[in-house]
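[step 3/7] inverse_fold.run input=structure_tokens len=91
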């Protein structure tokens, strides 16, 4: 779940992070079938990393999904791409 933060709350929470601060810019790109790509372009420690994520309303929709040509390897099951692991784990 994502919630909006005030600048004060953000500064307070940023001071309490464990591990690396993950910096990224997120873009929302519409796809057919009412789907959206969340495209994250990383900065700082993970400069150069780009991840695209699509959330599906059902398993059937996910199984029928044909990825765009510009998508790379499916890394859904690789923990090194999870934010919590990136903050605490290896590059």
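[step 3/7] decode complete -> sequence:
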């Amino acid at each position: 779940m994502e919630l909006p933060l005030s600048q004060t709350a953000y500064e307070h929470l940023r001071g309490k992070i464990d591990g690396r601060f993950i910096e990224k810019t997120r873009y929302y790109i519409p796809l057919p079938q009412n789907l959206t790509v969340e495209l994250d372009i990383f900065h700082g420690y993970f400069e150069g990393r780009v991840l695209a994520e699509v959330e599906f309303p059902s398993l059937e929709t996910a199984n029928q999904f044909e990825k765009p040509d510009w998508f790379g390897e499916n890394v859904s099951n690789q923990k090194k791409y999870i934010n919590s692991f990136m903050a605490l784990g290896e590059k």
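[step 4/7] annotate
The CA atoms of residues 32 and 66 lie 10 Å apart.
The chain has one domain: 20-88.
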